[in-house]
Amino acid sequence: MTSGELTRAEAIDQAIGKVYTTADYYEVGREKIREFARALHDDNPLHWDDAQAQAAGHATLVAPLTVVAIMGAKAQAQLLAKAVPGDLLKSGVLQVDQRFAFHRPIEAGDRLYCDVSLEAYRCVAGADLFTVKTLVRDVDKGVLQESWTSLAGPGEDADRLPDDFEDIVTGVMFSGGDSHVQPLAPTEPEQIPGDSDVRWSTVDFDSLTEGMDLPSRSQQFTRGDVINYIGVSGDPNPIHHSARVAEAAGLDTVVAQAMLTLGTAAGYLTSIVGDPAAFRDMSARFTSPVYVPAHEPAVVEYTAKIKSLDPETRRGLIVFGATLNGKRVFGRCTATVQFA
Fold first, then answer.
1. What is the pLDDT of residue 163?
2. Are the beta carbons of 220 and 298 closer than 8 angstroms?
3. Which of 152, 132, 144 is nearest to 91 (CA)?
């Protein structure tokens, strides 16, 4: 580093809080909603059937809660490429936490911009920890949801990766990832809307009790599921399809995407609750990877219970979790639901 040049930490610090937006809107397609729901094993009829979506009060098909993984993840990748020196994807970065605040449902035909900002950065024991905020807004409807994604990377001084790790990644990554990328543009923060007073169709609040266990689900994830999700969401990280890259990054083998396991958890919850639009927030911490063997499925067990209920607002807090072979996949996970 020469005199006058910023250190890596200084360069990252200068980027914190600056908001950028995507150059063009992403139009939510009807078949994309179905394709994404299929990838998440989500059979909620509001994702599939216009008549049932309209009967529930929606204009058309409703997108799964984690659909931001498609357009938002691309905007996040562009932001990190701009804000963080070096190629973060080629450093073995992993997602460790995800939070959502839902304001209005995303529906087919919505034209979405993603506003992204680096919210926080710190270096702990040689590891980089980043939090990126993604705000999704429709051209006509305004802000629909916010999400916060926390990522962990080895940091510039870490030595846990082999010297040829970047070459290993380059050898298996999608080679067209840099083609036709429209640059992010600086923008101002959007005003966040107040709570919606719309009551969507859900299970009866009065049928619920605090401490009540909800029906569990056993879900298989195969290499085919993981690869299909790569195609649907556009996730470029090769630890999800290359055993060589995964092992070089210190993992046992290929791992399922955090957003695949969380998106499937969200579909599991909405299948019990009813309308996905009734969810006000959701958060999850990813504590253990879901390793997916080459020739047999990984079986994840999803469970949930009613943690608390507020009779005045008719809202409930759901605590949910997932295990693989008895080991916790998620840390503390919660979702707030506005019951009818």
1. 82
2. yes
3. 152
Residue type at 113 in one-letter notation: Y
* Band of pLDDT at residue 164, cut at 50, 70 and 90: confident
| Best CA proximity match to 173, nearest among 65, 257, 252, 245 | 245
Residue 89 — pLDDT band, cuts 50, 70, 90?
A: low
Q: Which residues contact 198 (CB under 8 A, 6 or more apart)?
A: 57, 277
- The SS3 of residue 89 is helix
Hey, what domains does the chain have and what are their CATH numbers? 8-338 (3.10.129.10)
Query: What pLDDT is attached to residue 156?
Result: 61
The structure tokens listed for 49 are 């059937």
| Tens digit of each residue's pLDDT (9 = 90 or more) over 55-72 | 999 999 999 999 999 999
CA-to-CA dists, residue 163 to 16, 90, 167, 171, angstroms: 30, 12, 9, 14
- Are 46 and 58 contacting, i.e. CB atoms less than 8 angstroms apart? yes
How does 180-214 read in b/e, with b if 16+ C-beta sit within 10 Å? eeeebeebeebeeeeeeeeebebbebeebeeeeeb
Count of all residues that appear for the chain in the document: 340
Distance CA 57, CA 63 (A): 14
Rounded Cα gap, residues 277 and 107, in angstroms? 10
Q: Which helix (H) or strand (E) holds 320?
A: strand 315-324
